[in-house]
Amino acid sequence: MLTILAGALVLGILMFVHELGHFASAKVLGVRVLKFSLGFGPELVGFSLRGTRYLIAALPIGGFVKMAGESPDSPERTGAAWEFYSKPWWARMVIAVCGPVMNLFLAFLACAAMYVVGVRFLDFDSVVGRVEPSSIASRYGLVDNDKVVEVDGVRVRSWTDFVEKVRRPDAGSIVGIVVQRKIATGEKARVSIPVKRQDVDKFLSEIAPASSPPVIGAINIGLPAYERGLRAGDRIVSVDGVEVTTWERLAELIHKKPDKEVLLVVERGGKRFERTLTPVRQDVKGQGAIGLIGISPAGTAYSTARASGLRVVTLAAENTAEMLVQTYAGLFKLALRPRQLGKSIAGPVTIIQMSGDQARRGPGNLLYFIAFVSIALVVVNLLPIPVMDGGHVIFCAIEGIRGKALSMSKQVALQRVGIAIVGTLILFAFWVDFARIVQRGRANLGTPIEQKGGSPGERDTAGAISSE
Q1: How many helices (H) and strands (E) does the chain have?
Q2: CA angle, 326 then 327 then 328, to 5°
Q3: What's the CATH number where 134 sits?
Q4: Burial class (CB in 10 A: 0-12, 13-18, 19+), 441
Q5: What is the Cα–Cα distance from 251 to 255, expressed in whole angstroms?
Q6: DSSP state of 215
Q7: pLDDT(414) > 80
Q8: 3-state secondary structure of 254
Q9: Which distant-in-sequence residues (6+ apart) come within 8 Å of 429 by Cβ?
């Protein structure tokens, strides 16, 4: 029920805001709006007001604003001043662009709201891993498995919280770190470690949280791990016969195999089974090509990122711009590797699934997801495909440059091509959505290769959590 409600909320907001952009700009520019629809197909519910029919349709795959005289070959066109094609090219371009512009603004607002309510993310306990004997951390007296409990008298809740408190700009010349340490008697003692301000950056660079076990905490829908039926809570035992005991070792082995099949031995609920999958190729700055299967480690703690005041606006703008750049970069990479389309595209079913996953993690995470999908709609709608907003912009730009519009026959022919392309993409998106569900269902029917007594901590956690 939560998944359905969250999916309806996300899709409803995205469609409404986009069509509101077209609707409001058309009204301002004097174009008569005949219909405002959320969804396509048969009308489920609606009402009429001042000459416009407002409705919700059966298929939640988009929406539309029907304007008077909007089709170049429509027999209903009379040439009246309130018709879409009676307006100058620049006015029609504004109407076409305002839908994506509203989605861009929605992404910014969602990011801002996310920082106000706080976005929750997986983190690690403030337990220190290996401390090298020659490091500055060792010289200050830090040892393996120390648990940081306080910084300058303030309680530490996670590793990220520890780092932020140590680096805070208002700290004095000495940062007072208190750790909890097991002593020879087996009891726990509190040890104070004062660190000089000038040594903080080097101190932090030489330590890391204790190694996490190779247990899956989150699954990315649509990537190989999801499609092969892996779940949050699964423990990866080996990769291509190489035993793994830490998440770092697991990541190292997977990263070495972009576009190459790997064999995983997975443990779930005391039973072991095999899964073969092919890590997708991802180009990472400074690392080159690495393989990814779409999993994240099981964090031992949670942190919440918040902001206030002008910082909210700055962070929201930065996040929105970054998502826009990354989406265009992803589209460019997809054009170079079209075979990845099936793993990159997401239809309404996948969006609904991911909406439920993010809602379970908290309102901040759901807001980030709304921003992410809204940016994706900006990019997709501005593609230069006839019948889409980008296609209308191209037609208007050509008219502005030439001083006259393309002939009606050419516009009609191109729009028919556009309808065929968009229709094919919609059907393909639905096919990919349901193929993922079927593939994941089949993968979950795998036969155990070994059975043994499982510990209480080795439990099967139902439901994957999507992560970025």
Answers
A1: 13, 17
A2: 95
A3: 2.30.42.10
A4: exposed
A5: 6
A6: B
A7: yes
A8: helix
A9: 345, 346, 347, 348
Q: Which residues contact 61 (CB under 8 A, 6 or more apart)?
A: 39, 40, 347, 348, 426
What total number of domains does the chain contain? Answer: 2
* Cα 72 to the center of its chain, rounded Å: 38
* Residue 130, domain member (yes or no): yes
Kindly report which listed range (9-23, 288-302, 388-402) carries the lowest average pLDDT score.
288-302
Of 279, 303, 327, the one marking the end of a domain is: 303
Order of strands, edge to edge, in the sheet holding 154-155?
154-155, 147-151, 174-182, 188-196
Q: What is the DSSP letter of 84?
A: G
Tokens describing residue 251: 């990541």
Cα radius of gyration rounded to whole Å, the chain: 27
Contact assessment for residue 159 and residue 123, using Cβ atoms and an 8 Å cutoff: yes
Give me the DSSP letters along 269-309: TTEEEEEEE-PEEEEETTTEEEEE-SEEE--SEEEEE---T
249/185 same-domain check: no
Q: Looking at the structure, tell me whether residues 224 and 278 fall in a common domain.
A: yes
The average pLDDT across 98-126 equals 91
**Residue where a domain terminates, one of 147, 173, 205:** 205
Tokens for 203? 């101190």
- 190 & 269 share domain: no
pTM exceeding the 0.90 threshold for the entire prediction: no
The single-letter code of the amino acid at 90 is W
Q: Provide the domain limits for residue 134.
A: 125-205
- Rounded to the nearest 5°, which phi and psi values hold at 375? -65, -40
- Six token digits for residue 84: 């879409």
pLDDT per position as a tens digit, 148-205: 999 999 999 888 889 989 988 777 789 999 999 988 777 889 999 999 999 999 999 8
